[in-house]
Amino acid sequence: MKLKSLLLRYYPPGILLEYEKSGELRTKSIDLLELSSSTDVGALVEEIQKVEPLITTSRTQQVTLLVQRLQEKLAQHSDHSFYLFKVLRAHILPLTNVALNKSGSCFITGSYDRTCKVWDTTSGEELHTLEGHGNVVYTIAFNNPYGKMYTLIGHSAEISSAMFNWDSSLILTGSVDKTCMLWDATNGKCVTTLTDHDDEVLDSCFDYTGKLIATASADGTARIYCTATRKCIIKLEGHEGEISKISFNPQGTRLLTGSSDKTARIWDVQTGQCLQVLKGHTDEIFSCAFNYKGNLVITGSKDNTCRIWR
Fold first, then answer.
1. How far apart are CA 130 and CA 124, in angstroms?
2. Cis ω for the linkage preceding 12 (within 30 of 0)
């Protein structure tokens, strides 16, 4: 095997190795989920070299610099106050969902008008209109090369959300049966069922490490769970209507929620405190998302508009 290049992966933190074996270019990852600002980089690199033969002594300085860059990124403050940047009259009927691409340079919207549209984030220019659906477009996403498909049977009603954790070992589903279910992705079996909400679970997600789970419900609350213990550790209260969408920022320090009360909220993950209320939509917010840096938010509403906050 011959190492060809080393690449950084910021979220979740890690290093990607590109190497050649038998004339074929392959990749593998070194996951650094426990990396923090207090980690001894020299000792960490030594541990990596003990278990990864591709990281030879000649690569020590390069790996050290990469880990230090990751460390600096993780140490950056995630405090950010958002302001309204742009309003787009996106569709002729209400929006159902919005999603940013990895870099945040463009985003996609879905609508009751049976179309999807791709937009340039900075200019607000419509790039493409995707037509062909025979009914409402309820969910959208940009492609991710790491993914699998399973048939999971267990919920007693419609499934509202589904998401893999970062290494595709677990699957999280939310349902209008008021529960979330955690599944083993290797065999499709249910690991646990989360039953704390009093009404439909409308969305659910992992943080970038997969250690935390967040759920949003028609009962007007959101909850944060520890994936390992499957216990609720924080209940988020403040919205005056059902919460339709929830997502972590890339650093895992903030949560974004969108609600039928026409607002989005930014929450502190550690304390559960609401840090900011984003107001301006004139109807329900169906979808919202952070960009990959966590310094830009997009919201999509039944008022037929998207709003960009940065």
1. 17
2. yes
- Please provide the DSSP assignment of 1-32 as one string: -EEEEEEEETTTTEEEEEEEETTEEEEEEEE-
Cα R_g (the chain), whole angstroms: 21
Report the alpha-carbon distance of residue 304 to residue 92 in Å, rounded: 7
pLDDT band at 143 (very low <50, low <70, confident <90, very high): low
Contact predicate 217/197, CB 8 Å: yes
CA atoms within 13 Å, Cβ hemisphere of 105: 3
Q: Is 68 helix (H, G, I), strand (E, B) or coil?
A: helix
* Sequence-separated (6 or more) residues with CB below 8 Å from residue 220: 237, 239, 240, 241, 242, 243, 259
> How far is Cα 110 from Cα 130, in angstroms, rounded to an integer?
9
Q: Retrieve residue 184's tokens.
A: 């083993």
pLDDT one-digit tens code per residue, 201-237: 999 999 988 999 999 999 999 999 999 999 999 999 9
Distance CA 232, CA 195 (A): 10
Q: Quick check: 163 and 174 in contact, CB under 8 A?
A: no
